[in-house]
Structures are given as C-alpha cells and as structure tokens.
Amino acid sequence: SSVEIPIPNNAFETLFKKVNDLDLALLKEKSQKIKLEKKITKLKKKTNPDKQKQKKYDSQINELDNKHKTALEAVEFYKETSLDAVQKAVNAGNSVFPVIGGAVGGLIGAFVLWSNIGTAKDMYQNEKTEKLLQKAYENK
C-alpha cells in the first residue's frame, strides 16, 4: 500500500514570496543609491561644492554597494546550495521509498530550500553579513 504524503498547498507560494521579498529589499537599496547619486551630481554642479556633504554621500553609496553585493552573493550561494539539496533529497527519497520517493524527496527539498532562503534574508539584514557569508563558504 502506498502512503500519501501531504504537501502543503502553499509551500511553493511561500517559497517564491521569500525570494520576492529579498529581491524587493535589493531594489529598495538600488533606488536609495540612485537618489544619493543625484544629490552628488547636484552638488558637483555648484560653483563651490560642499566637500563634507559629498564625502558623506560617497560613503553612503559605498555602504549600499557593499550591502547589495553581499546580499546578492548570499542569495546566489543559497540558491546553488538549495538546488543541490533538492536534487539530493529527491534522489534519496527515490531510493528509500521507490513508491512515494518523489513526493518525499520533493517535500524535504522544498523545506531545505525554504529555510535557506529565510537564512539568506536574515544574513542580509545582519551587519555581520560578511563574516556569516565567509563561514557559509568555508562550510560548503
């Protein structure tokens, strides 16, 4: 007799929503950067530009760039790791439960992917992102 594994209806919707949230966060950073760049351009057009202000804007842009780069790396890293995990989970599921393997493997994989995207988002919001990312790469 085959066992039915219930896959939550919204599992994949939730997953894609998490990816979307992360993308939106990155877009907000981008628009913030564009605003800052416009301010700098305005400053430079003045005959006597405020050097302090310019320095401040420059460092803000730099900070946004670094945050953005690290966030993208985190997302990419987790996407790669997760896809790999999904594949392994499906394969393991198939060999252990030939009848229901696909469903079990897919479910395990979905949850691995799901939790990893959550982790990527937490990392993105954490100021220790660089260190966390470094750790993640070392443990790969």
TrEMBL record:
Residues 26-81 form a coiled coil. Keywords: Coiled coil. This is 20683_t:CDS:1.
